């Protein structure tokens, strides 16, 4: 997950530092985003879900201002991944699940870092990502989203 998230955001010049909550409490940070993972965050195949899953993650906002607090639903990501797996994918399902979590997290971090709830028309910042999108060989920032991130990082 960390490798995937970093790989997506690296072209924007971002370097991420990962900490567990208990460790982060002993440090101070100039830029901090708090991410809470909910549900079981280990991949276990789940039955195909026919109902609308809803968002796999969300970033909090208040009065139209995006806050640096994100929640990721591991269970919803796992269900999406499970529905997209094919025969040759099953032996590496845990790796694909980590990839999917990284992509969902990168999507939410773009919201936080740009301070915008806007979605892109292509790439990882699209409003909806399918299970196939989440486990595909590559999913990157669109040129427009990359430019937005570079602009706010100046």
List the helices and strands and how they pair.
Blueprint: H1 2-9, H2 21-24, E1 34-38, E2 57-62, E3 65-73, H3 74-84, H4 93-114, H5 131-135, H6 143-152
Helix pairs in contact: 1-4, 3-4
Structure overview:
With 154 residues, this protein is an alpha+beta fold. The protein has one domain (2-152): Collagenase (Catalytic Domain) (3-Layer(aba) Sandwich). The protein is built from 6 helices and 3 strands. It has helices at 2-9, 21-24, 74-84, 93-114, 131-135, 143-152, and strands spanning 34-38, 57-62, 65-73. It has a 3-stranded mixed beta sheet. Helix 3 (74-84) packs across helix 4 (93-114). The protein is globular, with a radius of gyration of 15 Å. The model has no long low-confidence stretch (mean pLDDT 91).
Descriptive keywords:
three-stranded mixed sheet; 6 helices; alpha+beta; Collagenase (Catalytic Domain)
In short:
The chain has 154 residues and is α+β, with helices and mostly antiparallel strands. The protein is 39% helix and 13% strand.
Number of helices: 6
Proportion of residues in helical segments: 25-40%
Largest sheet: 3 strands, mixed
Output mean pLDDT: 91
CATH architecture: 3-Layer(aba) Sandwich
Termini Cα gap:
26 Å
Order of helices and strands: HHEEEHHHH
Determine and state the CATH class: Alpha Beta
The domain count comes to 1
CATH topology: Collagenase (Catalytic Domain)
* Strand order within the widest beta sheet: 1-3-2
Q: Give the DSSP E fraction (strand runs of 2 or more residues).
A: 5-15%
Structural class category = alpha+beta
């Amino acid at each position: 997950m960390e490798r995937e998230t970093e790989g997506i955001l690296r072209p924007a010049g971002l370097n991420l530092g990962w900490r567990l909550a208990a460790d982060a409490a002993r440090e101070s940070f100039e830029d901090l985003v708090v991410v809470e993972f909910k549900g079981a965050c280990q991949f276990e195949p789940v039955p195909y879900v026919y109902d609308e899953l809803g968002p796999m993650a969300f970033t909090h906002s208040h009065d139209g201002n995006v806050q640096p607090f994100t929640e990721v639903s591991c269970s919803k990501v796992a269900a999406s991944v499970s529905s997209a797996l094919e025969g040759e994918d099953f032996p590496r399902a845990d790796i694909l699940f980590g990839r999917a979590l990284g992509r969902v997290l990168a999507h939410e971090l773009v919201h936080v870092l740009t301070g915008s709830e806007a979605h892109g028309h292509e790439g990882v910042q699209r409003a909806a990502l399918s299970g196939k999108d989440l486990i595909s060989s590559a999913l990157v920032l669109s040129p427009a989203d990359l430019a937005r991130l570079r602009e706010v990082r100046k």
